Structures are given as C-alpha cells and as structure tokens.
Amino acid sequence: MSVHAAWLPAESFVALGSRRVLVHGDGVDTVLDEVTRACARHGGQVRRSPCGDADVDLVLALRQAVPLPVPAAQAARQAAGEPPGDEGFVLTRSGDVTVLLADTPTGLLYGLFHLVRLGAAAFTVDQPTRRHRPALRRRMLDHWDNVSVHPVMGQVERGYAGGSIFWRDGAARHDLARIREYGRLLAAVGINAISVNNVNVGPVEARLLTDRLDDVAEIADVLRPYGIRVHLSVTFAAPVVLGGLPTADPRDEQVRAWWATTTRQVYERIGDFGGYVVKADSEGQPGPFSYGRSHADGANLLAEALAPHGGVVHWRAFVYNHHQDWRDRSTDRARAAYDHFVPLDGDFRTNVVLQVKYGPVDFQPREPVSPVLAAMPATRLAMELQVTQEYTGQQRHVCYLGPWWSELLGFRPWQTPERTVADVVTELVAVSNVGDDPFWCGHPLAQANLYAFGRLAWDPRLDPTAVLDEWIDLTSPPGSTGDTGRVRATLHAIMDDSWRTYERYTAPLGVGFMVDPLRHHYGPNVDGYEYSRWGTYHFADRDGVGVDRTRATGTGYAGQYPPGWAQVYESLADCPDELLLFFHHVPYDHVLHSGSTVIQHIYDTHFTGVAQVETMRERWRQLAGLLDQALFERVAERLDEQVRSATEWRDQINTYFFRKSGVPDAHGRPIH
Ligand code: BDP
C-alpha cells in the first residue's frame, strides 16, 4: 500500500497550480519546488525573476528582494507596513494579482500553504492587505521514538501508527523521501521544531548526541528546507554513560566542560540545531536529585552549554514520585510539578523552557489546567499536549482533540478576560502521533489531530470546528472520490463531538485513569491503579467516589490556583461538574449542576456514549462507495473496535458503581 498524501494531495493545489506564478528572491527553493510541481500538474506557469514579464496572477516574493518586478507587488510592499517577521507573511490582492510577501523563505513557504488553504478564494475575492504571524514562537512535536526496539514499549513509546519513520531495529532508516514528505506536512501547518527520540533515553539513543550524531544531522538536513529545526532528547547521565566521568553533578567543573565540548561538536555538525529535551528525576530517569541539586541547577547546566550557539533546553516539569504509598493520603501526585518547580521561578536561565503537561496528572481526557502555568511569571513556559492518543483511545477510537486543546489554551487562570494560557506560554509542544503507517497515524481520522495541533499552535483562537473543516477540505477527505458535501457533513457529525463522547463512556466527572495497566492504558480497569504506587486514585467505596483536593480536608492541591479558581474548585457548589471528582469526594446521591445525581450521571453518560459511537459507525457505513476503499475499510474496522471497546467501558464502569453503591438505574436499564 502506498503512503497516503494526508492533507496535501495534488488536488489541493489546483487553484494555485493553474495560474501564472512569479517567484522572486534568493533561497526560496522549497517554495519554487512546490510551485513548479503544482504548475506542472495543473497547467500553470512558473517564472523566476528577474524576468521582464509582469503579466502574472500571483507573486510570491521576499520583501527585501529588489527590484520587486510587478507594480502590484511594489504597491503591496508599501502597504504592508510593519515587517511580518521571521515566520510571518503579508497577503494582499489588488486588481487581478495576488501578492504574497515575506521576510524569509520560511515565511514565504507558510504563506504558500495559506494560499493552498484558501484555494480559489485567493484569486477571486479581493483580499485586504493582511499580516499573518504565528502567535507562539515554537510549535514543536516530540517523537517518543526509540532507535532500538524497547522490550516493553516497542519502537515508538505510546505509538499507535506502526514503527518509527526515523529508526528501525537499532539503526537509522535513511528513508529520506518519507521524512521529506513529513516535513512538508508539518510546514503546511506551521510546525517548526521536532525532537527525534524518546524522552526515556536508552543506551543506544543516548549516543545520538555523540557517535551517532550523523543520523540526526541527516534528518536535520532533510527538514531544514521546511523551516523545521531538530532537537534531541538527552539523558542527564550523559557525562557518565557517554563521557566516562565518575559523576553527572551539575556543579562539577568536568561535567560542565563535557557538556560544553559535546554541545559545541553538535553545532559544528548541525549549525541550526534546536537544543535538548530532558526528562529528569522522573519515572526512573536520572537527574540532579541524585547529587542533591535542584532542577534549576540541572537545567542551567545544559542551558549554559547551549547558550553560545543559540539553543534551548526543554526541561520537563513531569516530575513526581512513582513509588508512593497508596495508603498515605497526604501525598498527591497532582501537587508534584507545582511543589517541585514553582519555588524555582526566576532561577532558570533565559534559554530554559519549562515544558509543562497541560494537566497536573497525566494527559487525561479531562483534567484541570496545570496551576504551574499560572505560577511562574519569571520562567519561559511551554504547554505540552499529547497528540498520540495514549489515554484517548490509542488511534483505535475516533477522538478529535481540537475542542479540548482549544479549551485548555483559552483557559483564563486569573479569570480576567485578557490573559489566557495561550498568552502565558511562549510555545506549544506535543507528543507526535505519526509512524510508518500508510495513513501516517494508524487511524486515518487521527490525522486531524496532528493538523489541529499545528493550526492551534499557530493561532490558538481558531475555532476547532473550522480547523476540522480546513482539514476535511484539504484532504478532500483522504481518498474521497465524490460527493464532498455529504462526506464533509458526515465527518463533522462523527468527529466534532467525539472527544466528549469518549469522555462519556470512560472515567466519569474528571476522576481520570481507570485504564488498564496490563493493556498499556487501553480499555477499562477501574481498580487497575487503585492499589498501586503510581499515585492515581479514585477512592471509590460504598458511600462515594472522588479525590478530596481541597485545603480544608483534602490534599490542598486546589490551593495551587490563583485565588479565584482556588475558590471555585474548592466549593462543592461552584466546582464545574466535569471536574467534580477531581476535586471532591462525594456521595453517590450528590446532585450535580445538571440536576442529575452522580450515580445517575455515570449510568446515563455511559449509555449515551455507547449509543453515540454506534451512530458514528452507522454514519460511516453510509459513506461506502464514496471513499478510497482501503481508507474506508480502515476506518470501518476501527469503528467496530470502538463500539466493542466503548461497550466494555460502559459495562465495567456501570457494573462497578452499581455494585459499590447498590443504587439501581432510574430507567431500569440492564446493569449487573
Ligand atoms: C506517560 C506515559 C509514559 C511517558 C510519560 C512521560 O505513559 O510512557 O514516558 O508519560 O510523559 O503518560 O514522560
């Protein structure tokens, strides 16, 4: 089976490729290559300036390049005003000419893909001069790809789309065509950084920093033309495991010298290398705690080595004790990131980016926004999302996450209209969902999550439903053969609300987890983590369920928020229903804002959730014959599994809570 074009099939270039296009400026080879291919296919003409002929439909030009050959482009330059910046572009249309100006080749490439999104409208509708710029400066994907196959986690940790596109069985794949195609897809949604190996760094992966650096350089060379910089996950113990030093203590002079030299060598090979990603003192990874040092000491050590070369260190805030005593209720994993990092605010060097998971626990389908994001004004912050669907159905379930991310980005920590999470963070990072699967993401519809991540990182205020529409339009959808109106309506009906549907049939009211540890977080196991040391509990008994995180009687976690939210979350009367069990332990007959009791809500949402998945499957079946057959079958088969799995969730959750509470369903549906 060939690799699917995802959101850049040749057809999406029709409007652009059938015009007379002038490309102007130096170093714009990627744009030129895209335009040349599009025109060759769709009958247009490409010109490269300088050329005397001003008779064109579209000008793509670097703003500073002189002379601008076409009067319309000169006028556009005058009208453009302030420079669009490193990655921005200015689009305008006057008379019969569409003009796109940028300051850099990458800005021009982003502009070109913007034109592809606009399609025919870019050439028919008068566009007022408009400057486009990304809201966030770095938009990054972390690949949790192992070079060597990990005995438990496989080639890609939490990967559900086949093997890695970079590595196979301990070596680089050198599949440069595939990596190039990936670079195109990412550039088309504005992603400008990737990290190419797992945050849990094994012995082979550690060597990417030193004797295996050529493999990283090869990837960087292929992605550079698409404006993407490559980063590496490194182990904090590198000076010991690679350098043969007796210690990795951040205050040790030899350790500092080792990082400085090693980093210099990286930059000699990869001049635009992005920097390091570090998971330290977390889930068994080494870190500064072993030497009695703080995470600021640890992060600053690497930042100091990277600073002369313009690199950054992404230091992950996912630090907690995974050997807790479940019987001791005074510890709470949700508190950990704040407790570890907030006291260090102001101590990090300016090229440290603290990478904070969106919620305080671990990529759950519903969690409150991490309070760390509102508590470190003197630190550069990135919010970390999970595009790979570890806890949201593992790319066997349809779960469009755009609405969830949009909610997280729009959260207002101080309850004032002007400052959202998107205003506080300087970047957005996500764990990738891509593998060597022909549809890229295992589930063809999971491509929409990758697409939405990039688009929301570029502009967090975009409406996620409109973003989905863009994706449908550009993919048409992947492999569709006709009746796009019907296909579009059906995809919206299936996907728009699919995250909330997933939430309905899984763990209720924000309590989280309840996933099966043995099946790697897939499917239900209500008590799967209840008596383990990982620190994710629901405390269900015959009287009630939920975690008391109030200051008065619970773990005090709610007190980590600015006063407004602390009050809302602590108050049983005000706490939003969807987070009730995250913050409170309540009896089963507690009445929600919705008017339902907790127990009846559990039953109702689980029955509704499954019915909705059955409807999704029905809707999909009605598209038979309208889509590429392989794609149709892939989705159909996954929807069968989603129905099976959702039913399993419903039955286990409902039965569990019926047996604990003894309260029957008000509507008499079968629960055993
Ligand atoms: C957890 C995953 C684990 C990751 C960890 C992390 O289960 O595989 O290593 O996150 O973010 O959710 O480091």
From TrEMBL:
SUPFAM superfamilies: (Trans)glycosidases, beta-N-acetylhexosaminidase-like domain. It comes from the Bacteria. One of its GO terms (biological process) is xylan catabolic process. Residues 129-440 form the Glycosyl hydrolase family 67 catalytic domain. Gene3D superfamilies: Alpha-glucuronidase, C-terminal domain, Chitobiase/beta-hexosaminidase domain 2-like, Glycosidases. Signal peptide: none annotated. The keyword Hydrolase applies. The keyword Hydrolase applies. Keywords: Carbohydrate metabolism, Glycosidase, Hydrolase, Polysaccharide degradation, Xylan degradation. GO terms for cellular component: extracellular region. Belongs to the glycosyl hydrolase 67 family. This is Alpha-glucuronidase. It comes from Micromonospora yangpuensis.
